[in-house]
Design a protein that fits this description.
Layout lengths: L2 H15 L7 H4 L2 H6 L2 E7 L3 H12 L3 E8 L10 E5 L7 H14 L6 E7 L3 H4 L9 H14 L3 H9 L8 H6 L3 E7 L22 H10 L8 H12 L14 E7 L1 H14 L3 E9 L3 H13 L7 E7 L13 H12 L6 E7 L11 E5 H5 L4 H6 L3 H8 L2 E2 L10 E7 L7
Parallel strand pairs: 1-2, 1-4, 2-3, 4-5, 5-6, 7-8
Antiparallel strand pairs: 8-12, 9-10, 9-12, 10-11
Helix pairs in contact: 1-12, 8-10, 13-14, 14-17
Length: 424
């Protein structure tokens, strides 16, 4: 990577560092509930579950009666009092089902005076799973994979997931009664809606079976629904299966949004300014198709009229409609599309990466691109058309690889602008 690519990466890393669990767990622990609890159970699910649970152990010590978390980090270090299960993301697997079954089993033993600390972060929708009666895990995997490739956004996907589960949509909190439930949330969704983050197993949910069905219709997935899942949804639409936990029905459950994309953006801005950049945060709720967002951000960079050098920052989470047979993730696709749009602007460097360190089914967090990187590269357009950004950036040496970062607050885009050349 050249000097400017390295600076963009440093700005990204500073943003990620600001949303590590050690930065927020202490301030979010409910001191009064902890002090008054007879027993304390620590449960959790998500990409940051291990790091959050480690902080919980450090802060609570032997007050933890028992615990269980599920995460996707294969190198997760063992905890002292909290058990760990390694599940799969973005599609659930047998371990995800084991975790779901185990947490429902623990719920059976809850008593009045117990406190359940639930540690929730992105990825929980896949990592903590159950299968509707009459359906199979294979059917669930088939549908979730189709949703991921359809272009559906996270709210739409999780609306469907919640209505194919007895855990999601506040239903785990319902099972944990009469214990008090306090959820510490690391947000990975635009707007920080707790009902959407990780499919909200411990918070109330306003969505309905009818809305889940509408999502499947929107993306033309109803005709190919596996029979077990079709039957379950039809039962829900008819009222034969209870809805998810609706607002006002979980008075024993409370939550705290501990960290979000806006915090990471603020830290990234601080780093960019320390490097001498005039910095502007464009948004922390960027959504939509990755290629379309790339076009919008590229236009904003090209239209910039402020002082130089400049840094434009954006956060959010895009979608990709997968039609090709290549390899990549939404951040790599966004960076490649932006690079194509900015190929004639050698003064602009564009980075897009996931704060969790894992972009799609790859070992990269994202990628960085500028005219220098594109100069000796192959034509990027065929790679974009084949959803094959990974192999393009692999050849140019501009993939960003961080490994699991133990946090997850969506994605960050860092756009660096040097003084453009003067034209006579």
């Amino acid at each position: 990577m050249d000097h400017f690519a390295q600076q963009a990466f440093a700005i990204f890393r500073h943003g990620v560092a600001a949303v590590q669990p050690q930065q927020f767990m202490r301030s979010c622990l409910p001191a009064e509930l902890v002090a008054g609890a007879t027993r304390i159970f620590v449960l959790g699910a998500g990409k940051a579950a291990t790091a959050m649970a480690r902080e919980a152990e450090l802060l609570l010590g032997d007050k933890v009666t028992q615990g269980l978390i599920v995460t996707n980090d294969p190198a997760a270090a063992p905890l002292s009092r909290i058990s760990t299960i390694i599940g799969s993301h973005p599609v659930p697997d047998a371990n995800s089902l084991i975790a779901g079954t185990a947490m429902l089993g623990m719920a059976d033993g809850m008593q009045r005076g117990d406190l359940v600390l639930f540690l929730l972060s992105g990825g929980a929708s896949s990592l903590l799973a159950d299968v509707p009666e009459g359906a199979t895990m294979e059917e669930l995997q088939q549908l979730f994979d189709a949703l991921l490739k359809s272009g559906a956004d996270i709210r739409e996907m999780n609306t469907v997931r919640k209505h194919l589960s007895a855990i999601k949509g506040g239903q785990l909190a319902r099972q944990l009664q009469p214990a008090t439930v306090f959820t510490i949330i690391l947000s990975d969704v635009p707007g920080n809606d707790p009902a959407v983050i990780g499919s909200g197993p411990t918070v109330t949910d306003p969505s309905t079976f009818a809305e889940a069905w509408a999502v499947l219709e929107k993306y033309s997935l109803t005709a190919t629904l596996p029979p077990g899942l079709l039957h379950h949804l039809q039962q829900g639409l008819s009222g034969a299966i209870p809805e998810t936990a609706k607002p006002g029905t979980l008075p024993h459950a409370h939550h705290c949004i501990a960290a979000s994309n806006s915090i990471a953006l603020a830290a990234a801005k601080q780093k960019a300014e320390a490097l001498g950049y005039h910095t502007t945060v464009l948004t922390d709720t960027a959504t939509g198709e990755a290629r379309e967002l790339a076009t919008r951000l590229a236009r904003q960079a090209l239209a910039y009229e402020g002082p130089f050098p400049a840094c434009l920052l954006a956060g959010g989470e895009t979608t990709v409609q997968v039609k090709g047979k290549g390899k990549g993730g939404r951040n790599q696709e966004l960076a490649l599309a932006a690079g194509i749009a900015l190929k004639d602007a050698p003064y602009i460097t564009f980075l897009s990466a996931g704060t969790d360190g894992i972009d799609g089914p790859t070992d990269a967090a994202g990628a960085v691109v500028n005219a220098q990187i594109l100069r000796n590269a192959q034509d990027p357009l065929p790679f974009l058309q084949n959803n094959d950004a990974y192999h393009f950036f692999e050849k140019t040496g501009s993939l960003l690889k961080t490994g699991h970062t133990h946090t997850n607050v969506m994605d960050l885009a860092v756009i660096l602008l040097q003084q453009p050349p003067a034209f006579p």
